[in-house]
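Appendix B. Chain record.
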Amino acid sequence: MKCGNSEAVILASQIYRHGLRPAKGAKPVKMWTNHYCWQTALYYWLDDLEPATEEEVAMHLKADRDRRNARARELYRKKQNAKIAEEAERAAEEARLKAAYNAGELPLKTSWQWLSQEHRIPKNDAEAVPRRYKITPWYDDEPWENDPYYVTCYYYRKKDTLLVSDEEYCKLKSLYIKKYGGWDSIDLSSTSYDGRKWW
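Structure tokens predicted for this chain:
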């Protein structure tokens, strides 16, 4: 297949812009659009073209303009529909989350988070919600040789928690520090704490 970057050819879609038309019996030829040979297009050899009348030029240019305008309108319509659908999906998700918060289904937190952040603890009959996380060990020596592993942490819904007194807060905090050695943060890759009650 020939390449269409020759001066002896012209894109079939542009012949009327140059005031030309196909001669009788002339047919376009498929060629590569450049020497990289990634894409093809239809071309006419200049020898297969002849001057077009002003009326023919005007008619074909108008038809080409109408096609481009129609494509632009269709693209705009699709973008608007996609935008509307995206906004509707986002609104539905926000409504779902709001309903879940109002019902006490959210937020989900570990018992440590509930106590340290909001002075709350899970009730005795609270059901923990498990979540599985992928942990990738990182060492100074060739971390790519260390296979990832998974840990499961447990969380509680707000509706399944209750407020505690300052005295109870300090008592449970001391128990946690005694058992896990810290309070300000949790590193999932280096702790045995799994989110459940420790008392």
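Further analysis of this model is presented in Appendix C.
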